[in-house]
UniProtKB/TrEMBL annotation:
Protein name stated in the entry: Uracil phosphoribosyltransferase
Transmembrane domains' residue ranges: 37-58
Keyword tags: Membrane, Transmembrane, Transmembrane helix
Taxonomic lineage: Bacteria, Pseudomonadati, Bacteroidota, Flavobacteriia, Flavobacteriales
Organism: Polaribacter gangjinensis
Length: 73
């Protein structure tokens, strides 16, 4: 029963709080031309964060490779 309550709480957190800005974009702005730009700005923001994290990961991977500590058992 406790596990079921945890999953209900997580579902409530996302649907009641975290997705509210996206619901606003979908309901209020979707009929206007501005809604297209806002929706795509969210996607581009996620892509920029992903590219920054990927570049950091590659930089750290190169550093470990240069030090010779990668895949060391």
């Amino acid at each position: 029963m406790i596990a079921g309550n945890i999953f209900r709480w997580i579902g409530s957190l996302f649907t009641d709080f975290l997705f509210l800005p996206l619901e606003w974009i979908r309901n209020q702005v979707a009929t206007q031309e501005l809604g297209w730009w806002i929706s795509n700005a969210v996607n581009w923001g996620f892509l920029v964060v992903l590219l920054i994290l990927f570049a950091y990961w590659m930089k750290e991977s190169k550093r470990f490779l240069d030090e010779g500590t990668e895949d060391r058992a």
